[in-house]
Amino acid sequence: MTGHPQADELLMIIAIACYTIGALALIVYFFSRDKWLVNLGAPLAVVGCVAQFTQLVVRYELTNVWPLLNLYGSLSLFAAMSVAIFIVFAIRYKLWFAGGFVLALAAITLAYGVTWNEGTLPAVPSLQSYWAKVHVPIVVSSYAAFLVAFVFSCIYLVKYYAERRAAADSATVAWLESLPSLAQLDVIVYRAVAIGLPLISLGIITGAAWAKEAWGAYWQWDPKETAALCTWIVYLAYMHLHTRNAWRGVRTNWVSVIGFAVVIFTYLGVNIWISGLHSYKM
Amino acid sequence: MVQIRSLYDDFTQTFGNILFAVSLFVVWGILTFIGVIVDQGKSPDIYFSSYPAPIARAIVRLNFDNIYHSPWYIGIVGLILISLTVCTFKRVIPARLPPLRPVKIPHIPLNASMTVAGNVSDVRARVDAFFAKRGFQIRKREFDGIEWSFADRHNWARRGVLVAHLGFVIIAAGTTLYWARGFSGETAIVTGQTTQIPQTKATIRLDSFNYHITPILTKSGMVYQPTDYVSQVTVTGNDGIAKHMTVRVNHPIDIDGTLYYQASYGFAMRLAVTHNGVANAQLSQQVLAEGDSLTLPGTRETVTYERFVPTVDRATRMPSADPRVNDPAVVLNVTQAGNDAGTLLVPLHTAIDLGAGWRVAPASYLLYSGFQYRYDPGIPLVGIGALVLLAGLIISFYFLPARYYVRVDERPNGKCDIGVAASTVKGYDIFATQFDALLAEFTPAMETTT
Question: How many CB pairs under 8 A join A and B?
């Protein structure tokens, strides 16, 4: 046990530092398109992400307590998975221009998560289940995918409204043209939601199975469960609307933005402000 | 008859409309959200003390205090199920295998045309070989003397939405089976006592209950973290054989198909009651759960055991946050002729004088364990439904059915014109990259000459 706070906190500091510097580099790249900034920001994103996953493993190894059972641990995984999913997207679809926003959100999430770090506590009885190792990572990963979708939806909406207003400004037009087309951005958002929706569905299913084992009922109408249901409904609506040509685009991207607001409420708002069966902060 | 037909058409058109389904989702989401932010199942007083009167009145009168069982909520879920059913039969099943028919190639956003050398049969053979090599299913049809090739990929995945909808139906069947044939309940058993479950006739004796609390000094102060709740029970099921079993949170026990869950615990209490120094054996034998009362004979005085306080802070003489039993006390409420006479924190073995020679002292406590039990024959169906739903989502999202339309027209100079277009079930943008990639291979493979 000795030394674990140092190792834990050191890795966390490395991750926050990498994300912060990487975010700055990639946000500048978003506007300037100087290639060297990607060469700086992309490796920092990878290093920060690796540091975070290592931190979670180290914490588990040293404390023997599954590290995702409190807000500190789950926020850490949320940030790590957001960056990991983004890196995969960025490599596959050449999307480093958006990395600054993802890394900035990851850094903010991590910094906020640190404020919930109360040290190592043993798990309460209801969390002493193998389901904790299945349900929590799945749900947190779905939130991470929705974060990536949210970032690209915001970029979509910025581009959409900027294109309508900045027709005469040649510099702005040139910058807007350097971004992927609206159709391409919309496809990226769809692909991120297509990762998040099955994951949150699986998360709700595994959560129901766990609830059945722990409390005797799949569904208790607990605030966290119902808030997760709200999230699922919003993204289900997104997917249904996305099948309609008339709705695909600006409207579905607004739904994605609203969806992420619901995700944040489900994830943090319910845990912090509303008491229920899922009030695991520490 | 015509009117009925017209009504039916209006009904299917409305409920088969995706935007109508999304509108239902929106209402469903809003109602669910209300249930998240408004505490459920509280008494009206609590809403009136927590919200401005108009909002509290709306919460109570519109059933927002029990929203998930309100007519609005059940109604909207019912409408969604109807919409899902109509959409399945009106949209999903008919769209499963779209007919093979010619298209106006330039009108499809993903299109290309080229002229290649060779006679028409050779070129068609090359087209077929190209798509077959890449796993496409080729079908040919002739329309107005022109032969069309239809190359389909992941055609089976068109069933994805149907599979997802089927998953919902199976889950609904599983939960219906529980409502029809299952049951649930809860019971609290005091240490050493036996109870019989009314629905199953199984008996459960609580041999012992233990809970473990670990005090940990965190950055925010002392936290008393519960780490285990464990009941040792002796159960007798249908076979009549008594068995010793252990029930923990997350580890329910199974007695003849009914599952029993560790749900709660508490402290039952015996109060030593004396009148003019003589013990009242009958009242002193009673085991009171939290909230239970006893009435003193010949008086209109009632003593209610409100709650157990495991540890009293010695400095302040107030209840401490420590849930371990160190210096216990009980909270007793006394009423006289129905009027509240006061609430007292009374340490264990300390008597209080109630007047007229009556004295009451908390004598001893007994742990009780609360169990939930549930018989649910729908579990396998719900599990299968969940897997089917998930499979449907994965098929829908990760296997994109695409169709290429290829038309080869012979030109007089030994060349042929090839027109190619592609469509998917999710529009064109999502397939643009793949179309371009395929076209990059297709063009040289066809030996473009112009």
Answer: 136
A235 pLDDT exceeds 90?
Answer: yes
Residues A59, A64, A67, CA angle at the centre, nearest 5°? 50
Residue B218 pairs in a beta bridge with B221
pLDDT for the residue numbered B299: 87
Residue B153, SS3 per DSSP = strand
Token pair of B65 as six digits: 């205090």
Q: For residue range B122-160, list pLDDT tens digits in order.
A: 899 999 999 999 999 999 998 888 889 999 998 888 888
CA dist A176 → A38, A158, A171, A228, A250 (Å): 18, 9, 9, 36, 16
Under CATH, domain B105-154+400-445 is a member of which superfamily? Kinase associated domain 1, KA1 (3.30.310.80)
CB contact (8 A) between residue B382 and residue A184: no
Tell me the residues of chain B between 323 and 352 that have a Cβ less than 8 Å away from chain A.
Answer: none
Kindly determine whether residue B36 and residue A184, on different chains, have CB atoms separated by under 8 Å.
no
Burial of A181 (0-12, 13-18, 19+ CB in 10 A): middle
Tell the burial category of A49 from Cβ atoms under 10 Å away from its Cβ (0-12, 13-18, 19+): buried
**% chain B with pLDDT above 90:** 56
Residue B298 is predicted with a pLDDT of: 86
Q: B350 vs chain A: nearest CA distance in angstroms? A: 34
> Which comes out higher in pLDDT, residue A169 or A218?
A218
Q: Chain B 381-410, CB below 8 Å of chain A: which residues?
A: 382-383, 386, 389-390, 393-394, 397-398
Q: Is the pLDDT of residue B449 over 50?
A: no
Mean pLDDT value of segment B181-193: 92
In chain B, where are the structural domains located?
2-92, 105-154+400-445, 270-363
Q: How far from A270 is each of A112, A168, A224, CA to CA, in Å?
A: 16, 46, 6
A255 and chain B in contact, CB less than 8 A: no
- How confident is the model over B323-347, as pLDDT tens digits? 888 889 999 999 988 888 889 999 9
Q: Does A190 touch chain B (CB under 8 A)?
A: yes
The tokens describing B255, both together, are 């007695």
A residues 261-280 closer than 8 Å to B (CB): 262, 270, 274
Give B262's contacts in chain A (Cβ within 8 Å). 125
Q: Report whether pLDDT(A277) > 80.
A: no
**Region B361-389: what's the mean pLDDT?**
92
Distance from CA of B119 to the nearest CA of A (A): 39
Closest residue in chain A to residue B23, using alpha carbons only: A237
- Chain A residues with CB inside 8 Å of B383's CB? 209
* Residues 99-118 in A contacting B (C-alpha not used; CB under 8 Å): 117-118
A281 pLDDT exceeds 50? no
Instruction: Show the beta-strand stretches assigned E in B276-414.
Output: 278-279, 293-295, 301-309, 329-336, 339-347, 352-355, 358-375, 402-410
Q: List the structure tokens of B223.
A: 């936290």
What are the distances in angstroms from CA B45 to CA B48, B189, B203, B287?
Answer: 5, 32, 40, 31
pLDDT digits (tens, 9 = 90+) for A26-76: 999 998 888 899 999 999 999 999 999 999 999 888 888 888 888 889 999
B53's CB contacts (< 8 A; 6+ apart) are none
Contact B259 A216 (CB under 8 A): yes
A183 to B432: CB separation less than 8 angstroms, yes or no: yes
For residue A211, what is the nearest residue in chain B, using CA coordinates?
B250
The pLDDT assigned to A5 comes to: 56
B168 contacts chain A (CB < 8 A): no
Measure in Å the smallest separation between the Cα of A119 and chain B Cα atoms: 6
Nearest residue on chain B to A195, alpha-carbon basis: B397
A4 has pLDDT over 60:
no
Tell me: ipTM over 0.85: no
Higher pLDDT, B333 or B1: B333
